[in-house]
């Protein structure tokens, strides 16, 4: 599946530039998504104000990354 996505990106957006754009987008979105997932997982087990603040900040960062076009 990943190879088909990369193949589509390379033919659609001009080769290597398309692949690099796709990898950049996946990296920019993947980091905050993983951060939110870890925060929610930890909040289910522990409740602490710093952890809650980290979960809120990572969620806001994810929203900002997703809303920037």
List the helices and strands and how they pair.
Blueprint: H1 2-12, H2 16-45, H3 49-67
Helix pairs in contact: 1-2, 2-3
Proportion of residues in extended strands: under 5%
Point out poorly predicted stretches: none
Structural class: mainly alpha
The termini sit apart by 25 Å
Kindly state the number of beta strands. Answer: 0
Task: Please give the largest β-sheet.
Answer: none
Query: What gross morphology would you assign?
Result: elongated
Query: What is Rg?
Result: 16 Å
Helix content: over 70%
What is the ordering of alpha helices and beta strands? HHH
What would the average pLDDT be, to the nearest integer? 76
Q: How many helices?
A: 3
Give a description of the structure:
The chain has 69 residues and is mainly alpha-helical. It has helices at residues 2-12, 16-45, 49-67. It is elongated. It starts with a helix and ends with a helix. The model has no long low-confidence stretch (mean pLDDT 76).
